[in-house]
Amino acid sequence: MRTGYVVQRILLFFAIMWLAATINFVLPRLATGRDPIREQLIAQSMRGGFMSTSMEVMVKEYRVKFGLDEPLPKQYVTYLWNTLRFDLGKSLTNYPKAVMNLIGEALPWTLGIVSFAIVTSFTLGTILGALIAWPSAPRLLKFTVPFLLTFSAVPFYILGLILIYFFAFQLKWFPIGGGYPIGTVPSFTFGFVTKLVYHAMLPSLSMILASTGGWALGMRGMMVTIQGEDYMNYAEAKGLTDSRIFFGYGVRNAMLPQTTGLALSLGQLIAGAGLVEVVFGYPGIGSLLGQSITQFDYTTIYGIVFFLIVTLGIVLLVLDLLYPLIDPRINYEQA
Amino acid sequence: MKGFLNYVRRNPNLGIGFLMFTILFVFCAIGYFRYDLAKAAYPLAAPANKPPSWQYPLGTDSQGRELYAVIVAGTFLTLRIGVTAGLIGLATGTVLGFIAAYFRGWVDVVIKSLVDILLTIPGLMVLIIIASATKQAMSITLLALIIASLAWMGPTRTIRAQVLSLRERPFLQAARLSGMNSIEIIFLELMPNLLPYLAASLVGSVTGGIFASIGLEAFGLGAMREPTLGMTIYWVIYYSALLKGMWWWAMAPVTVIIIIFIGLFSLGAGLDELANPRTRRVL
């Protein structure tokens, strides 16, 4: 791998980050007639049951506090500098709390179920897809295809709604929502962790059910193509065992496009996972985003979106740089 | 008709797609004549929280909408958002893809890098920013336009690749040598060859548009007053309908959404087969 490519790829990463930050800065300021500070103050004083006459003074004070009285270019530079230090500002509804802290509290929940769901569905789907395409695999597997197709066409959270109704409301096999039982305090005891897993089952299951099909179908397509390759015939002619040909020659080669697919679909997976959390009331980033949207908490919305874009950018950067290690045929010399 | 049926036997996906949309169409047509959609699909049209009965075939929700009417109006609105966004996305993508592939040079570099950069950013996240900045004034048309603003990258990529492969074919060289100008070549030679791809691509971008619209609406970023499928899902979550046992409230939009997505998926696969018989799908 050439250093030129690495440098180019890293520059591209920063270009994306800069673009995302700039969109985050420009868009809210383009939306005319919106003044989150004033709205928030009015909403809060309404809740308190009186309208303060000194509202304007307060609005002004807060504008100074948030740096909104400065000229735009200066705001932009401050904004970029703060973003660079991962200071995403303070939440409007939970005022003194920093957006980054809110994200930090929600992140472990999301990471837990999303990574579990992605790893499980990717592994399951890849193996299943390879087997469906394999001539000597049990025929029964081929009957799973229509179901896989159906599930993969439906958004995660729609499946989530169905699962909640049947498995949580009707059968009561699983809790109806939340990350842990109400009235318990998170701790690292065995009892609590089992409850944690129990609550995470249904949200993960809805993601796994919906995305396994996609991986299986992609893998099946690749395996079918690969079976026509000369090296497969050669391996068979050499008298290698069926399992050796399957894993060493078939699956190994068909895996490459699967990994690329994984990198490309991460964005959609995360967005879908967010809505699954909303459906299940799971205390992760998706629910936080949903709440901030209902409560007009703009700094939190923008903070979360920016955070997700950056995280995804980093993951894609790492995957791109690792890719030549997985596939030795690729060298980025001409790139 | 007979020819079509014979073709569907060879390409069952297309048949399933058409079947799904026919079912949906008949279901909606019945509802269309049964209800005054401008009233029944909005709050306070019926007693609240009624399970399905002879009088209210799909039940009513907590705000007194009749769910059958909601579904009929919602299917239409949601498809409208998806088709508008998909068409705009496809049109923009086609123009950009053509320009990039046909004229090459720095134009191609700019368009291609832009597409590559934007494709790595999770689209729904950017849509969330745009939609929350315009939340107050949200309407069906605005939602469609917002989604369209990020729906052109996929089509650009497909069309660009397709034109790149077409432009080196002998028939295009013959056209160039016979003295046709760029406009004539684009419209008389390239376009007719691209039509099947455009059709398959349109299904793809409509699917993407509907996906994005329902996602945004379920997050609470839709036009709050309109009874679209996505807003219905939002209210189902907002009122915790399932935890109150109001299965009918969720059942109606969920079923229709599943039918739409399966229909579009099959239609897309079928059109792919029609456009590209050489890469036979092994379904």
List the helices and strands and how they pair.
The complex is a heterodimer of chains A (335) and B (283).
Chain A: H1 3-30, H2 36-48, H3 55-65, H4 72-84, H5 99-133, H6 145-153, H7 156-170, H8 190-226, H9 230-237, H10 242-280, H11 285-294, H12 298-326
Helix pairs in contact in A: 1-4, 1-12, 2-3, 5-8, 5-10, 5-12, 6-8, 7-8, 7-10, 8-10, 9-10, 10-11, 10-12, 11-12
Chain B: H1 2-10, H2 12-34, H3 37-40, H4 67-103, H5 105-120, H6 123-133, H7 140-148, H8 153-166, H9 170-177, H10 182-218, H11 229-238, H12 247-275
Helix pairs in contact in B: 1-2, 2-4, 2-12, 4-5, 4-7, 4-8, 4-10, 4-12, 5-8, 8-10, 9-10, 10-11, 10-12, 11-12
Can you offer a commentary on this structure?
The complex is a heterodimer of chains A (335) and B (283). Chain A has a domain at 107-285: Orthogonal Bundle (MetI-like fold), CATH 1.10.3720. Helices cover 74% and strands 0% of the residues of chain A. Chain A is built from 12 helices and no strands. In chain A, helix 8 packs across helix 10, helix 9 crosses helix 10 and helix 10 (242-280) packs antiparallel against helix 12. The longest helix of chain A is centred in the last third of the chain and has 39 residues, at 242-280. The termini of chain A are close together. The relative contact order of chain A is 0.13. The model of chain A has no long low-confidence stretch (mean pLDDT 81). With 283 residues, chain B is mostly helical. Chain B has a single domain (30-46, 54-279), classed as MetI-like fold (Orthogonal Bundle), CATH 1.10.3720. Chain B is built from 12 helices and no strands. The model of chain B has no long low-confidence stretch (mean pLDDT 86). At the A-B interface, helix 1, helix 6, helix 7, helix 8 and helix 10 of A face helix 5, helix 6, helix 10, helix 11 and helix 12 of B.
